[in-house]
Amino acid sequence: MSATRLLATVHRGTAFEERALRVLQNTLSMTLKRVGGKSDGGVDLMGWWWLPSSDFDPSAATTGTEHFSQRRRIRVLGQCKAEKKKASPNYVRELEGVLHRHLAAAADQPLVALFVSESPFTKSTLLRAQSSPVPFFLLHLPPEEEGEDPKNGIGSAVWNPALAGAQGLLEGKIDARWERSTSGVGRPGLWWGAYRLPSWTPDATPVENDDFRVE
After folding, report:
1. pLDDT tens for residues 39-49?
2. What is the residue extent of each domain of the chain?
3. Could you tell me the keywords of this UniProt record (predicted)?
4. Structural contact between residues 180 and 16, judged by C-beta atoms closer than 8 angstroms
5. From its phi and psi, is residue 195 left (phi > 0), alpha (psi between -120 and 50) or beta?
6. What is the pLDDT of residues 62-108, one digit of tens each?
7. Among 3, 42, 17, 10, residue whose Cα is nearest residue 141
8. Could you tell me the pTM of the whole model?
């Protein structure tokens, strides 16, 4: 690979990581930072996921009385891939290994594996994640191509039973859904039953509901 092509690839990867950070904070209540480098241990993003506790009452939230500061935080370790080919199950296996190493060092701390891809996931990748004992969140953020119709950018938010199942980390109470605005722009969102959870992090104001709807 030529130096020019390598530089372009690195730039594309960095730009995608920065875009992923914005989306994760603005729509999914995550505060992450980039940690990529030669000593990253297979991790591109690391930080916290701010979610309601298991006794959260949506009826209180709809009246504007949710106490965001009482949200619990869950450690997140993530990888980002800005590739044109579909994401293979090898990335899931690699991230499983990363989480197992971190769990060995902090067994009492819940961890979530986050894999953000600019390209869609293969069927094998989805099956591998679904069968994993590791709590997995797969997020497909399609590229934002200049001049293209935003309606063409259909992404997806998928997680496995170890994360979202009744016996999983989130106890089956929260869903990840792909939403679309009236203008056609898409984004991921979190839902507690019929209630859309506003995105909240300690250093930002809540992002309330708007003209987006679930696909």
Report:
1. 456 799 999 99
2. 3-214
3. Mitochondrion
4. no
5. beta
6. 555 566 767 899 999 999 999 989 999 999 999 999 888 887 777 67
7. 17
8. 0.84
